[in-house]
Task: structure prediction
Amino acid sequence: MVFESVEISTPAEESPAVSWPAIAAGAIAAAAMTLVLLAFGAGMGFSTVSPWGNSGISASIFQISTALYLMVVALLASALGGYVAGRLRTRWVGVHTHEVFFRDTAHGFLSWALATVIGAGFLAAAASNIAGGASPGHATAANVSATAGAGGPLDYYVDALLRPNPAASPNTTDPGAARREIAGILTKGIGDGDVAGPDRTYVAQVVAARTGLSQADADKRVSNVIEQAKTDLDNARKAAAKLSLWLTAALLFGAFAASLAATQGGKVRDFNASLTDG
Result:
């Protein structure tokens, strides 16, 4: 009886298509680079903004430069993470070059996705702490807002029931109560789109009683302040929308950079491995 020796080769499919340690390493590298670049950008940004008029850069230029810097952060950090994931991934033997290209691209994309999740959970808190340390006034404003908003949602309606007649008995003993009541009226009115007529009239009466202005001047002041507040809120909404669009563009740009860098890292790894085998 003749026994033939059969050489058993390990099929390419047994090699894992996804190298999670390489992806995790690339994500950590990208997250760390993002934190470094955000810290650097926060310092540079706060140093270029001047509180004095006609000095420093304008608000529009500052917004554009911030948006461009977000793109740079996404490019550098994501490219680093993708390249690390491509260089450290497991070598695939007997796999078609098209499949290798797809797997490398997937490794770069997954490293970017994991870094994004890490950034959403940890880097956002770190960046806010850096920004808060650079501008301590933000913390004070937040504390004041939290204190002012400590009341319940029905405070506006309770105040409406207990409103006195400012012309007959102006409240001069408790200015804090008057400020809180007017703040509640403006918050609800502007949030609903506009301050209602009775509320606007009452606020004007309180202003006239406390400032000594005529009723006509008080009405004009109230209207101007309400329009200014509505304009500022509208500008804030537009700025937030623009920032969201720039963040979306930066994230997509980072995903592309990470995927492309992973393919280059994989090519370098396979080339070096082929030289070693040869």
Observations:
- Confidence is low (pLDDT under 50) at residues 1-13, 134-150.
- Residues 145-231 form one domain.
